[in-house]
Amino acid sequence: MNNNITEDYVSFEVAKLLKEKGFSAYCTSLYTEEGKQNDVGNYNGTDDDKYISYSRPTHALAIKWIRENFNWNIETGYRNSHKDYSSTIYPMFPNTQVHRTERFKTSEDSVEAALLYTLKNLIK
Fold first, then answer.
1. Residue 22 within a domain
2. Considering Cα of 16, then 18, then 24, then 25, what sign does the dihedral take?
3. Deepest of 62, 84, 91, 94, by most Cβ within 10 A of its Cβ?
4. Other beta carbons less than 10 A from residue 15's beta carbon
């Protein structure tokens, strides 16, 4: 049994795209303008131009926000036959597959690729 399971957070690139698309959900972690991680609280705006920051949600929270606000769903899965991970992005209605990522060695890489694709190409 693996007792070292941790939360997976979005990359700095995804955090910037989420902010651009309107993400403002509560997060306990953020990135500074320079891309450094800071676990001091939630912020997706500015009090002063010197202190710009980006909310750093978990992968699960980012996917939920995209699903609830833009009706795109992202699912990932392990393919035992290939010993790799893949992700599928599809609209909630109708339930038609839109994009399937390449193969990845980790679940985190698969989710990151799906989030980047969705934010760059499917959400206007």
1. yes
2. negative
3. 62
4. 24
Residues shown for the chain: 124
pLDDT digits (tens, 9 = 90+) for 60-116: 999 999 999 999 998 888 888 878 888 888 887 776 667 666 788 888 999 999 999
Considering its fold, how many domains does the chain have in total? 1
1: in domain? no
Say what the pLDDT of residue 2 is: 67
On the 0-12 / 13-18 / 19+ scale of CB atoms within 10 A, 3 is: exposed
Q: Which residues pair with residue 84 across a beta bridge?
A: 79
pLDDT, one tens digit per residue, over 33-72 is 888 887 765 555 545 444 568 899 999 999 999 999 999 9
C-alpha distances (whole Å) from 38 to each of 2, 31, 49, 51 are 27, 6, 17, 12
Residue 112, helix vs strand vs coil: helix
Residue 53, domain member (yes or no): yes
CB 36 within 8 A of CB 80: no
Range of the domain at 65: 12-122
